[in-house]
Amino acid sequence: xxxxxxxxxxxxxxxxxxxxxxxxxxxxxxxxxxxxxxxxxxxxxxxxxxxxxxxxxxxxxxxxxxxxxxxxxxxxxxxxxxxxxxxxxxxxxxxxxxxxxxxxxxxxxxxxxxxxxxxxxxxxxxxxxxxxxxxxxxxxxxxxxxxxxxxxxxxxxxxxxxxxxxxxxxxxxxxxxxxxxxxxxxxxxxxxxxxxxxxxxxxxxxxxxxxxxxxxxxxxxxxxxxxxxxxxxxxxxxxxxxxxxxxxxxxxxxxxxxxxx
Length: 261
Prior knowledge:
InterPro entries: Anaerobic_Co-chelatase, Sirohydro_Cobaltochel/CbiX. It is built from eleven helices and eight strands.
């Protein structure tokens, strides 16, 4: 019986198509790398957990349920690896919920989210650009990040800056719910005389935000807004979790925790 476990924590998605290509794949990659560990899953979104339960009959653990189950299963050592982009609100809540169980396990360790240190940004950019087509002079990519009220939201602006410093002047990062917004980016797209825009979600899954806020047909979707501004728009509905090099970063974050112990 395995006494060590890796709890993979995601915000979650109610879109099974993207979940299978992203969250499922991240968990499988982690399992392949760490065969001696039992793998557990938890979602931090109660709303998504409820949708999956009532619509599909799929039960996904909350953080508390996952910790209770591991305790019941006799797990002694736990590595908690989030699939979050940032050390933001969801990550803070996750750490708080796990730390309530400090006395119940011999060891609890936390892996970092995707963007944690400067080296992560460089790896993410390298992984991202490997998957994009060659762009013509009048084409640009706009990445849709989620955005957060948390101070780590500055990571999106830092990523945008780093794309430029790495020589990718035609890649922009904006967010749905914070700064930089799409409006902030549109001015720059006009200044640089881009005519064609490729929209790509900068999210682990291509779920609600990607399908509706980015690529939807409602007046407030990024696609419709950009088209109304005169741009020709193409949408790529692929989550970051579909990129094997991105998934590898999460595996490396677990390894960093184990080697620094």
